[in-house]
Amino acid sequence: MKKLSLIVLVGLLASCSTLKIPGAKEPTDAEINDQAAKAYLEVKSKSKISTNKEWNDLVQRVAKRIAAASGENFQWETVLIDSPEVNAWCMPGGKMAVYTGIMPVLKTEAALAAVMGHEVAHATLRHGKQRYARAMTGNFIGMALGGAAIAGGQFFCKTTTCKAVSTLGGVAAGFAVTFFDRKFSRGDESAADKEGQMYMARAGYDPSEAPRLWDRMSASHGGKAPPEFMSTHPSDDTRKAGLNSWMLDAHTAYQQAPHHYGLGENIK
After folding, report:
1. Does 17 map to a domain?
2. Where are the beta strands (DSSP E) in 93-188?
3. Which domain holds residue 173?
4. β-strands 88-90, 95-99: how paired?
5. Beta 77-81 vs 95-99: how paired, if at all?
6. What are the phi and psi torsion angles at 108 (to 5°)?
7. In what order do the strands lie in the sheet with 95-99?
8. Which of 148, 168, 166 is nearest to 158 (CA)?
9. In the chain, which stretches have pLDDT less than 70?
10. pTM to 2 decimals?
11. Residues 119, 189, 195, 209: which is the catalytic one?
């Protein structure tokens, strides 16, 4: 039987979202972390790493504090990528990246802690692992992601970082495409907001800066975000409301933190 062309295969990926993969099983933490580490190496090799010493020092300092506050024994690593994208992420297992495009929007060290706390929470809550497991065990896309078809990842992988790793072979490439091109659910985003706010508070940063960050994020895109019902992400206003509703517990954690950095340094 002839092999399906890549374009036909991509069409199947879009239409067969409920086709089960016989014998597929959910990966263990060790397996998913190993795949993430390989994809992370590829991202770093194909990205422009920032040489801004002040920002690098700031990112490394905040990353170390947030990682400690999370209580997870991951193989933590963080890189600052020189790119205009207003973005940051944390892979399963603690492999993180912050993009220089987000730094001017943040304004304060505490806002960076809020962002990194949120991204780390996705990893500690195993959201990336769960998302990948759903792709591998619950639908047809896993069959392609685990094999040679990944060479054509650019056809169905929309993010810049995802395209950068589309030539990585085998299972690690499957992880990369799934991680970067499949969005977290609204529930996952809210859970990461809540847990991440606690992480920044335990790390010694004023949790009141978290909802203020979303005012700046909203201003950065000119209020042109899509309506909430059309997005997998909660709206900026919804995120602010959630962060404010959890503020009492976050402030309690902040008061109990061994160090108090407040808003930290201003980001210039």
Report:
1. no
2. 95-99
3. 27-268
4. antiparallel
5. parallel
6. -130, 155
7. 77-81, 95-99, 88-90
8. 166
9. 1-26, 128-186, 223-234, 236
10. 0.76
11. 119
**Beta bridge partners of residue 99, listed in sequence order:** 81
pLDDT score recorded for residue 28: 84
CB atoms within 10 A of CB 238: 16
When divided into structural domains, the chain yields a total of 1
40 exposed, middle or buried (CB, 10 Å; 0-12, 13-18, 19+)?
buried
CB 56 within 8 A of CB 76: no
Residue recorded with tokens 């600052």: 80
Residue 60 lies in a domain: yes
**pLDDT for 164:** 53
Q: How open is the CA angle 37-41-47, to the nearest 5 degrees? A: 135
Q: Do residues 229 and 95 lie in contact, with contact meaning Cβ atoms separated by under 8 Å?
A: no
Alpha helices in 156-207 (DSSP H): 160-164, 170-181, 186-202
Residue whose pair of structure tokens reads 């895109």 in the numeric block: 221
Q: Can 189 be counted among the known catalytic residues?
A: no
What would the two tokens of residue 186 be?
Answer: 């609204």
**Tokens at 114, concatenated:** 């809020």
Helix or strand (DSSP H, E) at 90: strand 88-90
Domain-embedded: residue 142: yes
